[in-house]
Amino acid sequence: MKHLLFTEWKRRFFSFLLLGELILLFVWNCLRIIFTDYGFDVDSVYFLYQNIPFISILITFHILLSMRFEVDNKTILNKLYLGYSKPLILFIEIWISMIESTVLVAFDNILILTLCRYRHYNLSNLTITFLNFIVCVFIVCTISVLITVLACTISNQLIAFTIVIAGTALLLHFGNDTTHAMIQPVKTDAFFSDGQMHPNPLYVTGTKRILYQIHLTLSPYAQAYYADFFQAELSDIPEVSLIPSSLPFHIDFLIVDILEIIVATIIGVKYFSQKDL
To answer: Rounded to 5 degrees, what are φ and ψ at 193?
Structure first.
Protein backbone atom coordinates (compact mmCIF):
# COMPACT_ATOMS: atom_id res chain seq x y z
CA MET A 1 0.00 0.00 0.00
CA LYS A 2 2.79 2.43 0.89
CA HIS A 3 4.53 1.78 -2.43
CA LEU A 4 1.33 2.38 -4.42
CA LEU A 5 0.52 5.51 -2.42
CA PHE A 6 4.02 6.91 -2.99
CA THR A 7 3.92 6.07 -6.71
CA GLU A 8 0.53 7.72 -7.20
CA TRP A 9 1.59 10.72 -5.12
CA LYS A 10 4.74 11.18 -7.23
CA ARG A 11 2.84 10.83 -10.51
CA ARG A 12 0.07 13.27 -9.59
CA PHE A 13 2.12 15.86 -7.69
CA PHE A 14 4.86 16.19 -10.28
CA SER A 15 2.41 16.65 -13.14
CA PHE A 16 1.90 19.68 -15.34
CA LEU A 17 -1.76 19.72 -14.27
CA LEU A 18 -0.96 20.62 -10.66
CA LEU A 19 1.74 23.07 -11.75
CA GLY A 20 -0.74 24.78 -14.07
CA GLU A 21 -3.30 25.06 -11.26
CA LEU A 22 -0.75 26.63 -8.92
CA ILE A 23 0.29 29.11 -11.61
CA LEU A 24 -3.35 30.07 -12.25
CA LEU A 25 -3.91 30.72 -8.54
CA PHE A 26 -0.68 32.72 -8.34
CA VAL A 27 -1.55 34.94 -11.31
CA TRP A 28 -5.15 35.47 -10.19
CA ASN A 29 -4.19 36.39 -6.64
CA CYS A 30 -1.48 38.76 -7.84
CA LEU A 31 -3.99 40.50 -10.12
CA ARG A 32 -6.56 41.05 -7.38
CA ILE A 33 -4.17 41.87 -4.51
CA ILE A 34 -0.98 43.39 -5.92
CA PHE A 35 -2.25 45.07 -9.08
CA THR A 36 -5.67 46.24 -7.87
CA ASP A 37 -6.40 49.29 -5.72
CA TYR A 38 -9.63 49.37 -3.74
CA GLY A 39 -11.65 52.46 -2.92
CA PHE A 40 -12.42 51.19 0.57
CA ASP A 41 -10.54 49.70 3.51
CA VAL A 42 -9.68 46.02 3.11
CA ASP A 43 -7.74 43.52 5.16
CA SER A 44 -6.40 40.05 4.50
CA VAL A 45 -9.69 38.40 5.47
CA TYR A 46 -11.40 40.16 2.55
CA PHE A 47 -9.43 37.97 0.09
CA LEU A 48 -9.38 34.68 1.98
CA TYR A 49 -11.72 31.87 0.83
CA GLN A 50 -12.96 33.76 -2.27
CA ASN A 51 -11.22 31.20 -4.48
CA ILE A 52 -12.84 28.08 -3.01
CA PRO A 53 -15.38 27.70 -5.89
CA PHE A 54 -12.54 28.22 -8.40
CA ILE A 55 -10.37 25.64 -6.61
CA SER A 56 -13.33 23.23 -6.67
CA ILE A 57 -13.49 23.60 -10.46
CA LEU A 58 -9.73 23.12 -10.80
CA ILE A 59 -9.71 19.94 -8.72
CA THR A 60 -12.70 18.60 -10.68
CA PHE A 61 -10.90 18.91 -14.02
CA HIS A 62 -7.68 17.61 -12.47
CA ILE A 63 -9.36 14.43 -11.26
CA LEU A 64 -11.23 13.87 -14.53
CA LEU A 65 -8.08 14.29 -16.62
CA SER A 66 -6.08 12.07 -14.26
CA MET A 67 -8.73 9.34 -14.51
CA ARG A 68 -8.71 9.73 -18.29
CA PHE A 69 -4.95 9.22 -18.28
CA GLU A 70 -5.32 6.06 -16.19
CA VAL A 71 -7.93 4.63 -18.58
CA ASP A 72 -5.96 5.49 -21.73
CA ASN A 73 -2.74 4.00 -20.37
CA LYS A 74 -4.41 1.00 -18.70
CA THR A 75 -2.81 2.03 -15.42
CA ILE A 76 -5.60 0.50 -13.34
CA LEU A 77 -5.24 -2.85 -15.12
CA ASN A 78 -1.51 -2.77 -14.44
CA LYS A 79 -2.20 -2.23 -10.73
CA LEU A 80 -4.56 -5.21 -10.69
CA TYR A 81 -1.92 -7.31 -12.49
CA LEU A 82 0.58 -6.39 -9.75
CA GLY A 83 -1.82 -7.75 -7.14
CA TYR A 84 -3.46 -4.61 -5.78
CA SER A 85 -7.17 -5.00 -5.01
CA LYS A 86 -9.90 -2.77 -6.45
CA PRO A 87 -10.90 -1.31 -3.05
CA LEU A 88 -7.27 -0.40 -2.36
CA ILE A 89 -6.88 1.24 -5.78
CA LEU A 90 -9.95 3.43 -5.25
CA PHE A 91 -8.98 4.17 -1.66
CA ILE A 92 -5.55 5.43 -2.83
CA GLU A 93 -7.17 7.57 -5.54
CA ILE A 94 -9.44 9.14 -2.91
CA TRP A 95 -6.53 9.82 -0.57
CA ILE A 96 -4.47 11.42 -3.35
CA SER A 97 -7.38 13.63 -4.44
CA MET A 98 -7.86 14.79 -0.85
CA ILE A 99 -4.16 15.57 -0.49
CA GLU A 100 -4.24 17.54 -3.77
CA SER A 101 -7.25 19.48 -2.52
CA THR A 102 -5.46 20.31 0.73
CA VAL A 103 -2.36 21.45 -1.18
CA LEU A 104 -4.38 23.78 -3.41
CA VAL A 105 -6.32 25.37 -0.52
CA ALA A 106 -3.15 25.71 1.58
CA PHE A 107 -1.19 27.22 -1.31
CA ASP A 108 -4.00 29.68 -2.01
CA ASN A 109 -4.26 30.80 1.63
CA ILE A 110 -0.50 31.08 2.19
CA LEU A 111 -0.10 33.01 -1.05
CA ILE A 112 -2.92 35.40 -0.17
CA LEU A 113 -1.50 36.06 3.31
CA THR A 114 1.97 36.62 1.83
CA LEU A 115 0.71 39.06 -0.81
CA CYS A 116 -1.45 40.85 1.75
CA ARG A 117 1.55 41.22 4.04
CA TYR A 118 3.44 42.77 1.11
CA ARG A 119 0.57 45.26 0.70
CA HIS A 120 0.50 45.86 4.48
CA TYR A 121 -3.06 44.58 4.86
CA ASN A 122 -3.98 43.63 8.41
CA LEU A 123 -5.02 40.13 9.50
CA SER A 124 -7.55 39.98 12.31
CA ASN A 125 -8.19 36.94 14.51
CA LEU A 126 -5.66 34.37 13.35
CA THR A 127 -7.30 31.54 15.33
CA ILE A 128 -10.69 31.89 13.62
CA THR A 129 -8.92 32.27 10.27
CA PHE A 130 -7.16 28.94 10.81
CA LEU A 131 -10.37 27.19 11.89
CA ASN A 132 -12.14 28.46 8.78
CA PHE A 133 -9.20 27.24 6.71
CA ILE A 134 -9.75 23.72 8.09
CA VAL A 135 -13.44 23.91 7.15
CA CYS A 136 -12.50 25.04 3.62
CA VAL A 137 -10.08 22.13 3.27
CA PHE A 138 -12.84 19.65 4.07
CA ILE A 139 -15.26 21.41 1.71
CA VAL A 140 -12.89 20.94 -1.24
CA CYS A 141 -11.89 17.45 -0.07
CA THR A 142 -15.56 16.42 -0.04
CA ILE A 143 -15.99 17.64 -3.61
CA SER A 144 -12.82 15.84 -4.70
CA VAL A 145 -13.98 12.57 -3.12
CA LEU A 146 -17.38 12.78 -4.81
CA ILE A 147 -15.74 13.47 -8.19
CA THR A 148 -13.21 10.65 -7.73
CA VAL A 149 -15.92 8.13 -6.87
CA LEU A 150 -18.05 9.14 -9.86
CA ALA A 151 -15.08 9.12 -12.25
CA CYS A 152 -14.00 5.65 -11.11
CA THR A 153 -17.39 3.96 -10.92
CA ILE A 154 -18.96 5.19 -14.19
CA SER A 155 -17.72 2.88 -16.94
CA ASN A 156 -18.17 5.19 -19.93
CA GLN A 157 -15.66 8.03 -19.64
CA LEU A 158 -17.66 10.36 -21.91
CA ILE A 159 -20.75 9.90 -19.73
CA ALA A 160 -18.62 10.43 -16.62
CA PHE A 161 -17.21 13.68 -18.04
CA THR A 162 -20.68 14.91 -18.99
CA ILE A 163 -22.29 14.06 -15.65
CA VAL A 164 -19.46 15.51 -13.57
CA ILE A 165 -19.01 18.74 -15.53
CA ALA A 166 -22.74 19.42 -15.93
CA GLY A 167 -23.39 18.45 -12.32
CA THR A 168 -20.57 20.68 -11.06
CA ALA A 169 -21.88 23.66 -13.05
CA LEU A 170 -25.45 23.17 -11.79
CA LEU A 171 -24.48 22.54 -8.18
CA LEU A 172 -22.22 25.61 -8.10
CA HIS A 173 -25.01 27.69 -9.65
CA PHE A 174 -27.55 26.53 -7.06
CA GLY A 175 -24.95 26.98 -4.32
CA ASN A 176 -24.38 30.57 -5.41
CA ASP A 177 -28.13 31.26 -5.34
CA THR A 178 -28.46 29.76 -1.86
CA THR A 179 -25.51 31.77 -0.56
CA HIS A 180 -26.89 35.07 -1.84
CA ALA A 181 -30.25 34.27 -0.25
CA MET A 182 -28.73 33.39 3.12
CA ILE A 183 -26.42 36.41 3.46
CA GLN A 184 -29.24 38.94 3.21
CA PRO A 185 -29.54 41.07 6.38
CA VAL A 186 -32.86 41.26 8.20
CA LYS A 187 -32.99 45.02 7.70
CA THR A 188 -31.44 47.27 5.06
CA ASP A 189 -31.50 50.79 3.67
CA ALA A 190 -30.46 49.71 0.18
CA PHE A 191 -33.92 49.89 -1.38
CA PHE A 192 -35.15 53.03 0.35
CA SER A 193 -34.40 56.71 -0.22
CA ASP A 194 -35.05 57.97 3.33
CA GLY A 195 -31.79 56.55 4.71
CA GLN A 196 -33.65 54.57 7.40
CA MET A 197 -33.38 50.85 8.06
CA HIS A 198 -36.39 48.85 6.80
CA PRO A 199 -37.21 45.11 6.60
CA ASN A 200 -35.22 43.61 3.74
CA PRO A 201 -37.56 42.29 0.99
CA LEU A 202 -34.84 39.80 -0.04
CA TYR A 203 -34.56 38.23 3.43
CA VAL A 204 -36.11 34.75 3.32
CA THR A 205 -38.07 33.29 6.23
CA GLY A 206 -40.13 30.26 7.15
CA THR A 207 -40.00 27.01 5.21
CA LYS A 208 -38.00 28.54 2.37
CA ARG A 209 -35.24 29.56 4.76
CA ILE A 210 -35.15 26.08 6.31
CA LEU A 211 -34.78 24.55 2.83
CA TYR A 212 -31.94 26.95 2.07
CA GLN A 213 -30.31 26.01 5.39
CA ILE A 214 -30.58 22.31 4.56
CA HIS A 215 -29.07 22.88 1.12
CA LEU A 216 -26.22 24.96 2.55
CA THR A 217 -25.49 22.37 5.22
CA LEU A 218 -25.57 19.34 2.91
CA SER A 219 -24.01 20.69 -0.29
CA PRO A 220 -20.24 21.30 -0.34
CA TYR A 221 -20.81 23.35 -3.50
CA ALA A 222 -23.04 25.78 -1.61
CA GLN A 223 -20.52 25.80 1.23
CA ALA A 224 -17.78 26.66 -1.28
CA TYR A 225 -19.54 29.92 -2.12
CA TYR A 226 -20.54 30.63 1.45
CA ALA A 227 -16.91 30.28 2.60
CA ASP A 228 -16.28 33.83 1.40
CA PHE A 229 -18.60 35.06 4.16
CA PHE A 230 -17.22 33.00 7.06
CA GLN A 231 -15.51 35.96 8.71
CA ALA A 232 -18.23 38.52 7.91
CA GLU A 233 -20.99 36.43 9.47
CA LEU A 234 -19.48 36.95 12.92
CA SER A 235 -21.13 40.38 12.97
CA ASP A 236 -23.12 41.11 9.84
CA ILE A 237 -24.83 37.93 8.61
CA PRO A 238 -27.87 36.28 10.27
CA GLU A 239 -27.58 32.76 11.65
CA VAL A 240 -27.60 30.17 8.86
CA SER A 241 -26.68 26.95 10.66
CA LEU A 242 -29.11 24.13 11.26
CA ILE A 243 -27.03 23.02 14.26
CA PRO A 244 -26.97 25.70 16.99
CA SER A 245 -23.41 26.31 18.14
CA SER A 246 -21.49 28.93 20.07
CA LEU A 247 -18.30 28.06 18.18
CA PRO A 248 -16.89 30.77 15.88
CA PHE A 249 -16.77 28.46 12.86
CA HIS A 250 -19.12 26.10 11.03
CA ILE A 251 -18.84 22.86 12.97
CA ASP A 252 -21.97 21.71 11.10
CA PHE A 253 -20.20 21.99 7.74
CA LEU A 254 -17.23 20.07 9.14
CA ILE A 255 -19.36 17.24 10.56
CA VAL A 256 -21.48 16.84 7.42
CA ASP A 257 -18.47 16.94 5.09
CA ILE A 258 -16.64 14.24 7.06
CA LEU A 259 -19.76 12.06 6.99
CA GLU A 260 -20.17 12.61 3.24
CA ILE A 261 -16.54 11.64 2.65
CA ILE A 262 -17.03 8.41 4.63
CA VAL A 263 -20.33 7.51 2.97
CA ALA A 264 -19.07 8.32 -0.55
CA THR A 265 -15.95 6.22 0.04
CA ILE A 266 -17.95 3.21 1.29
CA ILE A 267 -20.41 3.39 -1.64
CA GLY A 268 -17.59 3.96 -4.12
CA VAL A 269 -15.57 0.99 -2.88
CA LYS A 270 -18.65 -1.24 -3.08
CA TYR A 271 -19.50 -0.33 -6.68
CA PHE A 272 -15.89 -0.15 -7.89
CA SER A 273 -15.25 -3.65 -6.50
CA GLN A 274 -18.10 -4.98 -8.65
CA LYS A 275 -17.05 -3.06 -11.76
CA ASP A 276 -15.82 -5.07 -14.74
CA LEU A 277 -12.51 -3.51 -15.74
So the answer is: -90, -5
